[in-house]
Amino acid sequence: MQKPSFSRTPLSASIAFALGAGSLSPAVALAQDSSDEVIEEIITTGIRGSLMQSMDRKRDAKGVVDAITAEDIGKFPDQNLAESMSRITGVSIDRSNNEGSKITVRGMGPEFNLVTLNGRTMPMTDGRSFEFGDIASESVRAVEIYKTGKANLPTGGIGATVNIITGKPLQNPGFQSVISAKMVHETSSGDSQIVSLDSLTPEIAGMFSNTFADDTVGVMITASYQDRNNREENAEVANWTPNAQLQGGIINDNNQREDGVWWHPQNIGYGWSEIQRERINGQLVLQYAPTDRLTATLDYTYSEVDFEKDRNSTGIWFECPNIEATINERGTVTQVSQRCGDYSTNVGRDVSNKENGSLGLNLDYMVNDQLTLSLDVHDSSSEITGGDINGEQATTSFLIIGNTSCPWCLDAFGPPQVPTGTISNQTAFYGAGGIPTFDVSFEGADGLPQDGLLRSDIGSLFGGISNSETKNDITQLQLGGAWENLDNGALRRIEFGYARTKQEYATFGAGESQLPAGFWNASASEWPDEIWQTENLGSLLDGFSNGGSFSYDPYYTIDYNTAVEYWETIGTDNPQADCCFWPAWPEANRESDRGRFWPGAVDTSSRVDETIDAFYTQFVFEDEFNGRALNAVLGVRYEETDMKSAGLEKPATAVVWVGGNEFAYEFAPDQSFREGSNKNDFWLPSLDVDLEIVEDFIARFSFSRTLTRPPIGDLSPNREFVGNPNVRSRFINAGNPDLLPFLSDNLDLSLEYYYGNGSYASIGYFKKKVDNFLVSTTVQESFASLTDPYIGADAEQARAELVDEGLQADDQNVFNRINENLGNPFGTFVRANPDDPAVVFDVTTTDNAEVGNLFGYELAVQHMFADTGWGVQANYTIVKGDVEADPDVFGTQFYLPGLSDSANLSVFFENDVISARLAYNWRDKFLSGTDGNGAPVFTEAYAPLDANVTWFYNDQLDLFFEAINITEEVQRSYSRYPEQFLRGNQYGSRFNIGARYSFE
């Protein structure tokens, strides 16, 4: 007998969900015969119930669809939605702060996956990437992952479209209420060996739902609160510079590269941060169904996340020619010693507040037995801003303290007022595993060896403060309809609809990255010796194979608030302190603006307005082939996009030589206006066919064309003058309003065998051909208004004089000679003359320039062992393509971040008393982006192990225990090769213990 099949849009699915059609409740499932007579009511909750309902959704879907459903009312399988989805075949997650943050599906990264809430496109402040950590899982009833495109799905998800479905009161009439509370212990925070009240933070969530007036009126309220404290430990290398800093000393060169390229590390740093996050979620849903044909739903969803991070780090920074260096066969410096450089500590603070709000109205009206119409409108916003950092509205601030033995630095800024000890040698080791290590030796002011730095040796360098704000508003109107064919025939239904989505995305940024705070040893006398605190690294980073033991303890640091207090007053009583500040810092501002936004700070703003009009229709067919059910959905979607962008920027007016190889920008006092626009339209066809080959054995074929729009921030017309513009890094980043969407042709084939109650096995193949991939392009460009003092007439004269005198014409000597020739005081900034050559910039932007091919295989099995309570869920995904990065290539190449294989294994046991699950999640090495020199950055394989146990104390009370990342996995990333280490993160494990109570 042919099995009935129904297909819904995300919008109508939410409506049907509210009406109870295709109920997502984990508590009720109905088995019916062909006469619709109810034979049996099966009540299934917990892990088994969730997996069985998810399997039914997969089986009944048109196209390749996976789902996760709640285990019970107010109880999702994981407290984080992304972590639940990571157990879905082909889904991998990006973790932020040891928590699931964004998803990658079939190798397509977060920006290629569209996430909707009850079928609505939600605003985001991180481009087009959805942040799952913003939403509490307690209000979520199901998550559907559409891996194949359909005409009735909103566009944006080349990888997948993910629809988050929340509860509705008329779905399960009557009174229902649940409250849950838990205490959380992070092993990284405080003393990881001791669990005390001080180490625990609370989480509480509740849901209330009831219906009235013969179940025609319903109200549902959900709310949650989370307070989380944890610690992040990290090791970091700022960058690997090609073909630089290998002059001098003993070079043990084993380089086997044909092009001879080598890479030198810039530094080593170890850091640790204390993080506090507070999250509030709430949702109110009101429903009214005066007749069986009309249902109205009004809902408001709110979330707020307050984030604060206190950062500390210590490390070394290379400045000078090498004493000794070793280069391996792949061109990487694996050991280096230098006579001089910086030995520093960085203290800083990050603060942000993020608010999301969505108000929506949904109407579902059955005109007659054949025609159903629906209307959905919503107005939603997301905004992230900075907070109060010592009286300033800012997102981040920092101060660097420490010591240097850089000769040109002290020449340029004057000798210390009181002689200080300094670095005599620093040696660093870089390997293919673990973290880089280093050692430092010191000498006193008398030039003799010194065991370590003294408090009197420590000074300050500079600080920075910046603020950024992003706001995204979306208003959306969706009209949908379905005409049912009540006559016999293969065409069962025609669906149609229209949607208008208007999005406004605005950003603002301002800040100064080098606010003067003296200069290292020259400023040491400005800071009281007793202000410095002595600390030890102890067991820092002991999760890495060579971490947890360091040879250069102790180090000096300072409380952040104390640092800012002294930073704002340093030098006010000492007339000799002028040596400690950048000469370009205006004298009148030294007291009033010290440590605050500098009047010369750059501020920019941009706005992108995007309007999308979409029309779709699709035809649903149901028939038989050789007596077996055959279903097909044929559809087409047309979309037209109108985009306008505008921005205010502060262009650079001068490049100023401040000493050695250090340069700085000066910016115009007023902003300049720029704008751009773009229009495009696309036809997007789709076809889904499924055939039950034999009983319980389903074959699927799907073809679709889908699109993902470019990162919304890339559509800005603004230009950004990047960093300190030394002669090797005069960069401009520019937006491109003319970018077109990524366009993908998708093919899916799968076989699924549903062989038992809650058990199935499947194998699938997918292929994607993606056009309009973005490629970063760099061209050289000059501006007549900006001239270059480094190659100007004064500089060329100074070089010629030095050569004639037999002196080395290095940057610092040329700088000093220019000032000498011009009669300027020592260390005066060198400015260009109007007739000097123009500054040449490397202008980097993005363009649609590549076609990429992606393919892979998905294998999955879910098995319930009959009458034992045991079950297992396992899957494996293989992803391949011509979009993979080649680490051996030096120069521009095209690649797609996020590509990796993944696997999951979950074993569970459940009966009337207890429910337990152990889940292993593995993601292979993947390309996570590029470094500052355009080289590919890889994140190593990561495989956390999670567990949870629930004791059903009685019909109303559950007690539970959860463990996340039991094995305390660490994260490690590198540039090109494992020995080119970039960053390692360590967070530890997280344990939750709590209770959940259901009211009757």
Question: What would your notes on this structure say?
Answer:
This protein has 1000 residues and is mostly beta strands. The chain has a single domain (10-341, 359-397, 466-511, 602-781, 843-999), classed as Beta Barrel (Maltoporin, Chain A), CATH 2.40.170. It has seven helices and 52 strands. The chain has a 29-stranded mixed β-sheet that branches. A hairpin with a 3-residue loop joins strand 44 (902-910) and strand 45 (914-923). It is globular, with a radius of gyration of 31 Å. It starts with 9 loop residues before the first helix and ends with a strand.
Per-chain topology:
Elements: H1 10-19, E1 29-32, E2 38-42, H2 46-60, E3 65-69, H3 81-85, E4 91-96, E5 99-105, E6 113-117, E7 120-121, E8 140-146, E9 160-166, E10 176-186, E11 200-212, E12 217-236, E13 240-242, E14 250-253, E15 263-265, E16 267-291, E17 294-318, E18 322-327, E19 333-338, E20 341-366, E21 371-385, E22 387-389, E23 392-394, E24 396-404, H4 407-413, E25 422-429, E26 437-443, E27 449-450, E28 459-484, E29 491-516, E30 533-535, E31 555-557, H5 560-567, E32 602-625, E33 628-649, E34 652-659, E35 662-667, E36 672-694, E37 697-708, E38 719-722, E39 731-734, E40 742-756, E41 759-787, H6 793-804, H7 811-822, E42 838-864, E43 870-881, E44 902-910, E45 914-923, E46 926-930, E47 936-939, E48 945-952, E49 957-964, E50 971-975, E51 981-986, E52 990-999
Parallel strand pairs: 6-9, 14-18, 39-42
Antiparallel strand pairs: 1-2, 3-8, 4-5, 6-7, 8-9, 10-11, 10-52, 11-12, 12-16, 12-51, 13-15, 16-17, 17-20, 18-19, 19-25, 20-21, 20-24, 21-28, 22-23, 24-28, 25-26, 26-27, 28-29, 29-32, 30-31, 32-33, 33-36, 34-35, 36-37, 37-40, 38-39, 40-41, 41-42, 42-43, 43-44, 44-45, 45-48, 46-47, 47-50, 48-49, ...
Helix pairs in contact: 6-7
